[in-house]
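Notes, p. 3: input format for complexes.
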Amino acid sequence: MSEGKLIVFSAPSGSGKTTIVRHLLKQPELKLDFSISATSRAPRENEVDGKDYYFLSLKDFKQKIKNDEFLEWEEVYRDNFYGTLKSEVERIWKNGKHVIFDIDVVGGLDIKNIYPKRTLAVFVKPPSIEELKIRLKKRKTESPDKISMRVAKASIELATAPQFDFIIENNKLDVALEEAYELVSSYVGAEKTAK
Ligand code: 5GP
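Output follows (195 residues plus guanosine-5'-monophosphate):
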């Protein structure tokens, strides 16, 4: 698909962007496919290699950086590398789909800079840092020190919001989902099919 587009959802960890991205992927008329990132972090329980992420060793990740296989990559947390493989975007475009990303703010803005004319970059804003802390604790996927690390990073990430094309405030999930749907469907030119 030569006219394939890129839809970036970026946000601090715990803002609900993954939920939004999953919801959009369920709408066939949007013709979206998820960009599976590579990461050097360990899989969480329930995460599947090749579905949630391509889980790589730190050594393999660094080798792929050397080979110039990444469109963008970032050491999001210390020794936890994350990146978008060029082959991933090509795979999705070849299948006639638009690429949707769930990536950190730096990576999101990198994609926007690489493909300025075919990227919609959306920032998902949590109601507050306090609420973010509560959500991360409830999720129970991170230890207390990792939660503190993610919360500290969130304040820095929030400052980048104005650089995105749109900001969605995730105060009420159903409203955020609807807003995200409207934005993406008008960007890709989809018409909702009668259900
Ligand atoms: P988590 O460990 O919670 O899955 O992800 C941590 C952060 O890394 C999240 O903000 C997530 O969106 C981001 N991330 C995931 N994949 C990529 C990627 O390919 N590139 C970049 N730059 N960030 C990513």
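The mean pLDDT is 92.
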